[in-house]
Amino acid sequence: MNFTSDNSFGAAPEIIEAMARANEGALGSYGADPLAARVEERLREIFETDLRVFLVTTGTAANALALASVSPPWGTVFCHAEAHIAEDECGAPEFFGGGLTLRHLPGKDAKIGQEALAHAITECGARGVHQTQPAALSLTNLTEKGALYTPDEIAALADIAHAGRCAVHLDGTRFANAVVASGETPADLSWRSGVDILCLGATKNGALAAEAVIFFDPQRQEAAISSFAFRRKRGGHLVSKGRLLSAQMDAWLEGEFWLNRAAHSNAMGQRLATGLRAIGGVGITNDAAANILFVTLPLAIHRRLRAAGAAYYLEPASQSEEGDGVSVRARLVCSPSTPPESVDSFVGLCAENGAAPA
Amino acid sequence: MNFTSDNSFGAAPEIIEAMARANEGALGSYGADPLAARVEERLREIFETDLRVFLVTTGTAANALALASVSPPWGTVFCHAEAHIAEDECGAPEFFGGGLTLRHLPGKDAKIGQEALAHAITECGARGVHQTQPAALSLTNLTEKGALYTPDEIAALADIAHAGRCAVHLDGTRFANAVVASGETPADLSWRSGVDILCLGATKNGALAAEAVIFFDPQRQEAAISSFAFRRKRGGHLVSKGRLLSAQMDAWLEGEFWLNRAAHSNAMGQRLATGLRAIGGVGITNDAAANILFVTLPLAIHRRLRAAGAAYYLEPASQSEEGDGVSVRARLVCSPSTPPESVDSFVGLCAENGAAPA
Amino acid sequence: MNFTSDNSFGAAPEIIEAMARANEGALGSYGADPLAARVEERLREIFETDLRVFLVTTGTAANALALASVSPPWGTVFCHAEAHIAEDECGAPEFFGGGLTLRHLPGKDAKIGQEALAHAITECGARGVHQTQPAALSLTNLTEKGALYTPDEIAALADIAHAGRCAVHLDGTRFANAVVASGETPADLSWRSGVDILCLGATKNGALAAEAVIFFDPQRQEAAISSFAFRRKRGGHLVSKGRLLSAQMDAWLEGEFWLNRAAHSNAMGQRLATGLRAIGGVGITNDAAANILFVTLPLAIHRRLRAAGAAYYLEPASQSEEGDGVSVRARLVCSPSTPPESVDSFVGLCAENGAAPA
Amino acid sequence: MNFTSDNSFGAAPEIIEAMARANEGALGSYGADPLAARVEERLREIFETDLRVFLVTTGTAANALALASVSPPWGTVFCHAEAHIAEDECGAPEFFGGGLTLRHLPGKDAKIGQEALAHAITECGARGVHQTQPAALSLTNLTEKGALYTPDEIAALADIAHAGRCAVHLDGTRFANAVVASGETPADLSWRSGVDILCLGATKNGALAAEAVIFFDPQRQEAAISSFAFRRKRGGHLVSKGRLLSAQMDAWLEGEFWLNRAAHSNAMGQRLATGLRAIGGVGITNDAAANILFVTLPLAIHRRLRAAGAAYYLEPASQSEEGDGVSVRARLVCSPSTPPESVDSFVGLCAENGAAPA
Questions:
Q1: 3-state secondary structure of A306
Q2: SS3 helix, strand, coil % of chain A, rounded to 5?
Q3: DSSP state of A10
Q4: Chain D hits for C123, Cβ within 8 Å
Q5: Do the Cβ atoms of A213 and A69 come closer than 8 Å?
Q6: Is pLDDT of A356 > 80?
Q7: For residue D354, how far is the Cα from the chain centroid?
Q8: pLDDT at site C353
Q9: Taking a C-beta distance cutoff of 8 angstroms, is the pair B54, B230 a contact?
Q10: Which tens digits make up the pLDDT trace of A245-278?
Q11: Residues of each domain in chain C carrying CATH 3.90.1150.10
């Protein structure tokens, strides 16, 4: 019963096998291997458009390098206050971006509202050199709080961003989950809705450590792409044996593998949601569109779960195991490796007699 | 009738004369002149304690260098969302601080509330290396919105900051106004209330371009002081003919000169407030403790003022001259050079018949 | 006949198998897995001392993060002009180090001479804040030009460095080759000779992508270690599924595996050297102590090798395939995967009749 | 007898008077004053071309901001190993440039040779993303070692730089001295010879603290100019009371004032050179084209000068007052304030009986 993160499990066996296969023989180093070319070709197919891709090992590197490539040091990146780049990357965007600034925006379930964005962009930089200037909008889909942007929502935000001279970045660490949950195509959830750069994450969805930074419309983005290439090397993110990354990504994107993995995570998330909704005292506080639930657990239930070995994080991180003395707030994440039995056991423990606190 | 800024006027004649006097002969360069030593001595007197001082030409440099000296690149600086460092320095703290992060806090009239600070510090960095860490609290007194912190308020915030391993920085671009308006001593408004570093601004109060960065308790702050010295040079802020700065600061601090200047600004501000309070339709929206007023002006009055040549900025900067069609919001700043006649003319124009919009 | 780099081949099968084994089950993420702890313990054994280790994926990240942790932005890092950090990392040390400065030193075969170092340190920073200050000495062993530092040589340089308030960093991307070639212990080639931080590279010697940054005497280096931890995350180098790295390093350090791999590379290098020394017209220009040779190849031999498919880089990188019209300068690197037959074929091609230019 | 630096004296009285005059009344702040516009117009006259100018207080800020505006963080700036940016700015170019790299070139009297530059640019960046890329050539005229580049020499270097995709920056801290010493026009010594950005220094030549960063061909350099504007503010170098700078520069550029000042410094330098050449044992080691001499002084003479109160710096900075026990190497700088009597006294002391060491 491990619901801590989609990072807690290893990679899919298929990914490990692909890495082993790719290990044979002498190949071009630093990304000049045939698998890397194949990955780029495959992504063009999946996204139905021309694009340029760079592979890196972590989501933090992917996001920060991408943003640094489209923002000057005096640029402002608009993001949700609970975005991964704002809360979980120890200032990586600021570091890679030479001291760029994140502007935190509000919104339910880590989704940015159009009005808030429009207002923030209008205010930003109005006093010229005295202020940092609008540079990028960073969205996350699936959001950090488990919610989903539709293509229309993305397009509306992207239009505001582009009108304000901002590039549109999408943190897609759980993009596969978003594709599956929405039933939309990868293209509709990205460039067709105005996304300029997508960080497509495989690590949380079957890979060991592989993220693809995708620049759409590469001719228009030539300067950003060149910048990215130098920043990646300079940031220590150009691995010498490039097959480490290309083999993972190649296997992950083969056929429907990547989507099937996400489909399982999402199904487990929905199974968990359905189960918990039936239990008095347990509340689901987010719009749990895919594999992430935020819940309120009565203290008695929480203690019983912990006693049975259930693993999950409390929210916020500074919350104690006693919460407010009545209940705790918890994040529950289902991964491609989560077995249905785990979900059922968890729900079962919640449902036992005496669950509700006195 | 210029109420745009305390920057719009030149320096006090006394300051220019002092610069002319100091210009004679060969002196040590790069701060090794006798006036610089005298300034440090004088500041020890004024603040009744040991300290170490560095002079620079701009408030932006003073603040950014000071914060960079006490925060690692992965540090968080807590400040008000409307602080000068957040809104008017084009990301200078982030630049000098190697990509440090500002955390914006709310509060009426740009004053940070104790609860908001305590909460923000507790949340910050709770997930270890995944998050930037508490590094500094930055206050401004007089605040950007014209309000005043009392020594007790500063001490309460400083206690929270220190308990959270934060240094306390005070942007004192209008510190003289705060001293005069509060009736407190410089010591009580700074180190005795827990301030570690004070950026004491003379530029807005009579100097041409001179700011003093003061480190209290210099033995304890030895590392920050050494860091500051290198950062100042490396930032291009160590002027070769150091007397440029030391002569200004020496003259400004002589006797009660610096306080007398602020007393005049404050008196003009209060005269303006008193005048405007008597006028129907004009509203003062801030706690105008010294020389800065934020007001709502009916459109008819605003047009009449503009027609008469009155100069002031609208708030926010992106607001049009028509405001919301009914009124505009304006910032009115009185300077050491503001004559009472200007104030009275301004009030007179506001008060004319027909002032109130239909 | 691939002598381009020790990066051109995949990982050792043992490493891939270890990664597959480590892939099972849910483990702590971000380095909190049991293998990571075991790696640290094993390194303590190998180096016969207490230490603290961080794993990263690339040598560039290892070096740059290490140097940034011991140098302020106004620090100078002394290194050989042909060091990897100076020539092959696209300014990564400057980037991670907030704009630190590398000072290039001369010396045969990329070895720094004691006198050159002593002189450079003495000159550096003599004018106080006007100049960057001595911060670190960076050595490489085996050097980029294939030569070896003895423990005595390292100790002499480290003494000079420490006397000049510099930390001593060792780029050990080929440290295993140095241990084998010298017959010295890992301890004698590192901390016993004054090395403070060792970047121990496994990638060029059997791993897929794994480098260990080792801080010796961890209590003394507590500040640098804490700085490293934040910089690693902020640099996007803290991989979520930490087992990716710990599994590689654990397998690589098991028994004599790491040394056996280097022993093979070195043996191939010496076999190549012996073969080439017997051939007229071919000159070995470096002190080829292990697996790297720099050679002058007559043009006729070079063409014959190329025609037969031999792969190697010309030096400098900007040299054309025609060299100076008479000969080319080439770098030949033997890897753990280089078969003796490759070496013998290469030598055989060189030795054919007509090899020597007219 | 102060020959330490052209910084040791205050400003010319004319400059102080101009500052006092400009101090009257309310003016636009942050560079929006009429004097700033007049300075730009005057510079167009002097340089006989269109240009865009920014004023800052220090040469370090001028150089570092200029270089950062034309180099990416992964750029290499080619400069002489003894250039001010390499030796006296504490890494300011690296700081402002986000970790850019300086490549030190050799050459007599701090003049860069064409062959050395051509070679360095060709080698630089040949391995693509693994290396920093050519970005700018930085020259200094008058050089730090007192020598002069002719327009032809500048043009030859600029041609090499431009062919290698480098912008050409000229550190003109003593540009006035170069104009006077060469008899060439400001235009011929700058843009007509290929200079893209000139940092024109007034501080060492009569101003208190004023440097003009001049972008020639402003339409072509639009991106660099915009970058500069933000970097200046963000670097804390946009002074609020801009008249501080514009008044100095305006007065300095009026008529022939700036050139007359330099003419005096140069004449004093030549008077000193003529005097010393006649003295046995004293050697002038540089090509002293203007106001800077590097000399070897026998120890007896050096002691006699010191005893008489002569002030000058020894070279290198780390040299002791005893030099090598036989002689010391000294730098002698004449300033606009150096009286002929000082020169004559200095020469006289050197010439006294017993001057030559035993």
A1: helix
A2: 45, 20, 40
A3: -
A4: 316-318
A5: no
A6: no
A7: 37
A8: 62
A9: no
A10: 999 999 999 999 999 999 999 999 999 999 999 9
A11: 262-351
Helical residues (DSSP H) of chain D, grouped into ranges: 13-22, 34-47, 59-70, 84-87, 92-96, 114-123, 151-163, 175-182, 222-234, 243-252, 257-277, 299-307, 340-351
Which CATH number does the domain A258-351 belong to among 1.10.10.10, 3.40.630.30, 3.90.1150.10, 1.10.3810.10?
A: 3.90.1150.10
The CATH number corresponding to C262-351 among 3.90.1150.10, 2.60.40.10, 3.40.50.720, 3.90.180.10 equals 3.90.1150.10
Q: What is the pLDDT of residues D206-244, one digit of tens each?
A: 999 999 999 999 999 999 999 999 999 999 999 999 999
**pLDDT of A227:** 98
Report yes or no on whether pTM surpasses 0.80. yes
CB contact under 8 A, A29 and C92: no
Name the neighbours of D, counting chains with at least 3 Cβ pairs within 8 A. Answer: A, B, C
* Euclidean distance between CA atoms D105 and D116, whole angstroms: 7
Residue linked to tokens 């003061």? B214
Q: Please name the fold of domain D260-351.
A: Aspartate Aminotransferase, domain 1 (3.90.1150)
The boundaries of every CATH 3.40.640.10 domain in chain B are: 13-252
Distance separating alpha carbons of residues D175 and D331, to the nearest angstrom: 19
Retrieve residue C89's tokens. 């990392």
ipTM higher than the 0.85 cut = yes
Q: What is the rounded distance in angstroms from the CA atom of residue B337 to the CA atom of residue B335?
A: 5
Q: What residues does CATH 3.90.1150.10 cover in chain D?
A: 260-351
In a 3-state reduction of DSSP, which class is residue B241?
coil
Crossing angle of the two packed helices C222-234 and C59-70, in degrees rounded to 10: 130
Which residues of A fall within a CB distance of 8 Å from B130?
A: 88-90
Mutate to test the interface with B, among A71, A94, A122, A315 (most CBs of B within 10 A): A94
Residue D315 sits at the vertex; the CA angle it makes with D312 and D321, to the nearest 5 degrees, is: 70
Report which residue type is found at C304: R
* Binary contact (C129, B227; C-beta < 8 A): no
Taking residue A189's Cβ as centre, other Cβ atoms within 10 Å add up to 24
User: Which amino acid, C240?
Assistant: S
**Measuring CA to CA, how many Å separate A18 from each of B309, C205, C250, C252, D241?**
75, 21, 21, 21, 65
**Least confident window among A64-78, C24-38, C47-61:** C24-38
Looking at the complex, report in whole angstroms how far the Cα of residue B175 sits from the nearest Cα belonging to chain A.
22
CATH class of A13-252: alpha beta
C185-188: list long-range contacts, CB under 8 Å, 24+ apart: C185/C48, C186/C46, C186/C47, C186/C48, C187/C47, C187/C48, C187/C49, C188/C151
Q: Quick count: other Cβ atoms within 10 Å of Cβ D341?
A: 9
Alpha-carbon gap, residue A199 to A202, rounded angstroms? 10
Beta-carbon separation of A133 and D230 below 8 A? yes
- Interface contacts (A, C; CB < 8 Å): 157
The answer to whether the CB of A130 falls within 8 A of the CB of B89 is yes
CB within 8 Å: D88 and C130? yes
Distance to chain A for B264, nearest Cα, Å: 28
Q: Which of C7, C78, C94 to mutate to test the interface with D (most CBs of D within 10 A)?
A: C94
Q: How far A20 CA sits from the closest chain B CA (Å)? A: 31
The first and second tokens of residue C358, run together, are 């007219």
Asked if the Cβ–Cβ distance from B129 to C98 is below 8 Å, we say no
Mean pLDDT on B201-230 = 97
Instruction: Give the helix/strand (H/E) hosting A42.
Output: helix A34-47
Enumerate neighbours of A (3 or more CB pairs within 8 A): B, C, D
The CATH 3.90.1150.10 portion of chain A extends over 258-351
